[in-house]
Every structure is written in structure tokens, then in C-alpha cells.
């Protein structure tokens, strides 16, 4: 008799799942038996990712595409609405989608692009999907952050954050990664009496397609010089898969991990007042409490 796979009967949603560590995370969860929903912007890449995962996980695997650009909150709302109609529960949510910002860009909804993609989208999606996560009984929310959060700072004034004159790709990215950790802290606190856990992680310096075409020349040069020392997407995805599936972390919540172990985050990232303040800012900017 075949031994049941560890995640058989569970449903996982992975954002940014068409390349890099998102693709590997989705593939590994499918290989563990989960029904996997891939969220990506590009149809061709999503279909290729689906085919690759299906090949790796076998003909019995259930892999589905959800094509949405999560830099816009209205698209996040549309994705959530679709999932609430289609699913009875969601066992695993991996907030993996993220960008390394290039030139200053405002979305159609008036948010700086990396802030919208890296922070507001996971904040909104997670909150909108809480009914499905709660229905799972014991669900897990995993959010990909970065050690760049150490130089991050949360700017409460949206006008300052959206000012081209004050913009820096480095601070924009670091701020959004700090927001990932503070969001996780506050989410875990708010879900303390539920069966839902929330953790975040630093995947390592991963050789992926994070660099955009409009990324600064300096950043491209630094990235090129650092590439020989970077880890593979397979290595970078290990902590995401660990937090999404390992039995030993099923009851742990509100923590920051690296290399599949609890890691130290910055003092700012551990500030509960900052976490609560960020939650208020996020609720105001997305219209989602």
C-alpha cells in the first residue's frame, strides 16, 4: 500500500510562482501532495511553470493557474473573490511575490510599486483569505522577507513615500521587507487564538530574476559581481517549504527564519508599536482591515 504524501488533501497558494524560489516552492509542495494554485502575471510563464511542476510531481498532481498582477489592490481583491467562490478552505498561503524596484514608479492606484507589490499585496491577500485559512483548522501563512530589512524604516507619510525626489530603490526595497516582518508579527498576534500560524523568512542571496530592466546600473553591477556567491532557487526555497510543511513548526508563529532556523531580526522589526502602526497604515491604504 502506498504511503500517503505529507500534504495530501491540502491546498496551497503560492504567489510569484512562475519563476525563481516561488516556482521551486510550488513544485516542492506539489511533490509533497498538495493541490497547488500558482499566481503569476504572465500567461506563458505560468503555463510553463504548470507543465514543469506537473512533470516533477507526477500525473496525479493538481496544479492550477491564477493569472493576476498583484501590484494592484483591485486585482488582489479579484483573486480573493475568485478563491472564496471556488475553495472551501486554504491550508497554506505563501506570500512569495516580490520585486527589486527600479526607477520610481507609481501604480494606477497611487502606490509606489515595490511597496504595493511587496507589502500591500500580501497584507491585503492574507486578510481577504482569512475565512478560507480559518476553515482549514490549522493553516500556515508564510511570507518571504529579506535580510535587507535591517536597513528598512516605515515611512508613515504616504506623500513622502510617493515622492520621486526622496525615492531610493534600496530604501524602498528594504522598507517593504521590514514591512513583511512587522506584518507577520502583528498578524500572528491577531491570530493568536486561532489555528492559523504566520511566519516569515530570509531566503538567502538567491540567483533569480529579481533584477528589473529599469534597475539602476549600480545595482545591476553589484548583482553581477555577487552572482558567483549566490545560492540556487532550490536552496533559496528550502525555508519557505520548511515553514509551509514541516510538522515541527506547525505550532510556531510570529517568527523570522533563515536556513530553516529561527533567526535574529532587527530591533525595529521586533517593535510591537511599529507593527501596530504599520497595520493601521496598511488598512488605510488598502481599505482592508
UniProtKB/TrEMBL annotation:
<keyword id="KW-0560">Oxidoreductase</keyword>
<dbReference type="InterPro" id="IPR002347">
    <property type="entry name" value="SDR_fam"/>
</dbReference>
<dbReference type="Pfam" id="PF00106">
    <property type="entry name" value="adh_short"/>
</dbReference>
<comment type="similarity">
    <text>Belongs to the short-chain dehydrogenases/reductases (SDR) family.</text>
</comment>
<protein>
    <submittedName>
        <fullName>NAD(P)-dependent dehydrogenase, short-chain alcohol dehydrogenase family</fullName>
    </submittedName>
</protein>
<dbReference type="InterPro" id="IPR036291">
    <property type="entry name" value="NAD(P)-bd_dom_sf"/>
</dbReference>
<dbReference type="GO" id="GO:0016491">
    <property type="term" value="F:oxidoreductase activity"/>
</dbReference>
